Amino acid sequence: MTTTESTDTPRLRVRNAQVADIPQLVALTARIYTAEWGHSAEMLRGQMARFPEGQFVAEFGDRLVGYCATFRVAEQTALAPHTWGEITGGGFAARHDPDGDWLYGMDVCVDPDFRGLRIGRRLYAARKKLCQKLSLRGIVFGGRLPGLAKRMARYGSAQAYVDAVIAGRQRDATLSFQLRNGFELVGLLPRYLPGDAESLGYAAHLVWRNPNHHEKPLIPGHKAPRGLPARVRIATVQYQQRRIADFQAFSTQVEYFVDVAAGYESDFVVFPELMTLQLLSIENAELSPVDSILKITEYTDRVKALFSDLAVRHNINIIAGSHPTRDASGDVYNICYVCLRDGTVHAREKIHPTPNEAAWWGIRGGNSVEAIATDCGPIGVMICYDSEFPEMARHLIDQGALILFVPFCTDERQSYLRVRYCCQARAVENQCYVVLSGNVGNLPGVNNFDIQYAQSCILTPCDFPFARDGIAADSTPNTEMVLFADLRLEDLARARSSGTVQNLKDRRHDLYQTRWPTRG
Length: 520
Fold this sequence. Notes:
This protein is an alpha/beta fold.
């Protein structure tokens, strides 16, 4: 007879990181590197979205006590001089190359309270195992030299210090450990992490060569990102604003379009910005601009419940336009509710209110720009004017977004074309899909929302795999209708890997970077 003894000792294990781990990982890296230099939630989303099998956590009981981040990179990039910011794309693993023949070690960190459990060794072992599983040439990274600053006067140069460590005459807490783990030095990387005072900004350029690697022809792959559908069907609604008698009439109109999109087996249906201002026609009263917005915020809970219920019942992901929402402090934000078919609801604020929104309605700009994980891959939302700021789109793409949704509301053609042209630029420069949905029709008596102009569309990059003119679907201006398009994720992978131009891959990380501050 065999017996199993129970124990209250927590189990230490290494597993792949998950999106649900992000809050703990933000706290862990802030504790190790400080809040300013730790990984932000957006960085972690980007790392997991691009190469989920390359991100590992060490879990002790229900607590995360270690993190290991990696991505694939080509040899000519991995072995050339670089800084941490350049090669990691600012910490987002933005330079991950699905066909790269080396595994780049972006970070390994261990909770100081749990050192002595060989957690670092376990994470390095997981990294080596992945390298061998993928038949890559090896692992490369820049390793810290935490003893350099204290001993610089003695050795006179970083190279002399490193030579002493390799010869065994000097011990360095990090480099000595890495050498014992089979890594070899290929050089020094100056200015690798300028803020690393202990290392004087230097890093040891280290490699571990996969003993099981055998030379064989490299056949580039252009499949959709792992675990995602090859094709995503999009429906975008050009929505007619008309007077309604009550909330039920609004619900009926919205459900009609959701049912149509679901009937065509769409994965997403998109509605326009501020579409819920239609509810003000129920009041049938002259209200000041501020009173109008405050009145519409009273519908927030019913609007969220409506769209979430429709998403689940019709098995479709809904980008629910946008709705003015009042927070606990009394401030009003223009928020897009993304209601997924699994029942989850995500709120995304408009970051850049237009001058009219701020002056007439007192709408404030949000502070957070985060991609959303869906069953069709990561997506991003930019509400109208947000699309005219390229930094915002790039931040979403760095987090792994493949499709950007742009609910918009414009009153005349010039306003519309600003949004349209900028969205086409975002599709080209980020090699992604961009989906626009706008209002048409008139609502006399609703302040600052009386006339509308729209030509909703679905935009693509401009390259051979995509639709002519970079337009997958287009609408008739100022006419209520629904557009459909099948967007192929493998076409994005092909364009980013081997397109005529490769905007994301060819960014000059050595010349420019955008750093988004971490907010508590």
